[in-house]
Amino acid sequence: MGTRSQQPLRCGRGRAAEIGGGGKKRARRHVTPGPRGRVTCSLPPRPAPRRRRAPCGEARPEPHETSRGGPGAAGAGPGAAMAQRGGPAVLPDNPFQVRDGPVPPPGLASGPGTGPAPGASPRRASAAAATAELLKRQEELNRKAEELDRRERELQNAALGTRLNNWPPLPSFCPVKPCFYQDIPVEIPADFQKTVSTMYYLWMASTIALFLNFLSSLAWFCVDPSSGSGFGLSILWALLYTPCSFVCWYRPMYKAFRSDSSFNFFVFFFVFFAQNVMYVLQAIGIPNWGFSGWILSLIALRKNTAVAVMMILVSLFFTAVAVLGIIMLKKIHSLYRRTGASFQKAQEEFAAGVFSNQAVRTAAANAAAGAATNAFRAP
Predict the structure, then answer these.
(1) How far is the C-alpha of 148 from the C-alpha of 155, rounded, in Å?
(2) Got the DSSP string for 234-279?
(3) Cα 315 from Cα 147, distance rounded (Å)
(4) Measuring CA to CA, which residue among 323, 333, 326 is closest to residue 265?
(5) Which residues are CB-neighbours of 217 under 8 A, at least 6 positions away?
(6) CA pseudo-torsion sign 104, 110, 112, 113
(7) Where is the composition biased (Low complexity) (predicted)?
């Protein structure tokens, strides 16, 4: 058995030797002869990497926070993680990149320090104008839909005959039942509902004024017993004008706006003009006429101050009712002229209403038959 040729070691204990072939230095190892001729090699310790010194005023990152996923690594985005691995810190062309911080509004640019994008303000103004126009059209359509629903309910109630009188609103135990049907939102067109409601409030105000006139006349009668005729007339006006004004001018006005009736318009104008004349006379307050107006208030001021103050309040009430009545008469007349009504149309409506009434036709037929019988019996 031959002996293996061994190359003597050129390094002793604690010295470095070159190991490898081809004359190339691949690694330097520390060779140490061990017991029984064995050789042990170990790599020398690698020097620690040098840290980059941070400039003055810059915070030095903690190693455990950046390398072990601490708070610094958790707060950093994917760009910081890639920067630690040697990649780019920011990916500007990546559409799926997660960006920290608030998202800029669509009218502003995404870059820092930039103002609103050109053309953003005109676009917003045009969008706001289009939205306002759409809302206006929606309101108009809703109003037309409500008008159609009202007409449909009115036709259904008229066809079924289920309308019950609801005015005056009396309790159920009262033996007197309501005499009229009144529903302004249902029966009156939307353009005239405010006018009809104002006239209804005017009628209520005139009724309250007559009641206050009765109280002031009673107080004046207690002060001056010779004014008994005025006190009696105040009772008559309160009992007479309250129902008659409702039937004679308010109901014709209500029917005129409900069915666009020229005949009812003419009746209303005639009666309401006379009612306005009475309003003016009530505000004047002629003695012994039953009205506590301005003249009677000045006379009562000489005798009793408390009664005079009460009469002055009633005079103010009468004056307000008279002014409002004149204003509403002028307004309704202007509305009447816009509807295209005429006196000839009113005559036609009156004739059609008279001849369509069954009682009138029966009376006319009986009168004609009686006249013909008398003519044949005559010698």
Answers:
(1) 11
(2) HHHHHHHHHHHHIIIIIHHHHHHHHHT-HHHHHHHHHHHHHHHHHH
(3) 41
(4) 333
(5) 227, 230, 231, 234, 290, 292
(6) negative
(7) 79-89, 117-127
Is-contact 296 285, C-beta < 8 A? yes
Give exposure, 62-72, as e/b (b: 16+ Cβ within 10 Å). eeeebeeeeee
CA 114/CA 108 separation, integer angstroms: 8
pLDDT band at 71 (very low <50, low <70, confident <90, very high): very low
Q: Provide the edge-to-edge strand list for the sheet that holds 27-33.
A: 16-19, 27-33, 39-42
- Reading the block at residue 183, the tokens are 């529903």
Length in residues, the chain: 379
Triad 71, 97, 82: Cα angle to 5°: 55
CA 53 to chain centre: 67
Host H or E run for residue 177: none
The enclosing H or E element of 143 equals helix 120-160
Nearest by Cα to 341 from 271, 259, 248: 259
With contact defined as beta carbons under 8 Å apart, do 313 and 208 qualify?
no
Rounded-to-integer distance, Cα 347 and Cα 353, Å: 10
The pTM of this model reads: 0.55
Measured at the alpha carbon of residue 194, what is the angle toward residues 189 and 199, in degrees to the nearest 5?
110
pLDDT band at 338 (very low <50, low <70, confident <90, very high): confident
In whole angstroms, what separates CA 170 from the centre of its chain?
34
SS3 content of the chain, % helix, strand, coil (to 5): 60, 5, 35
What is the pLDDT at residue 273?
A: 95
Contact predicate 125/158, CB 8 Å: no
- Token pair 């004679």: residue: 248
Token digits for 212? 């206050």
Show Cβ contacts of residue 66 under 8 Å, excluding neighbours closer than 6 positions.
Answer: 72, 73, 84
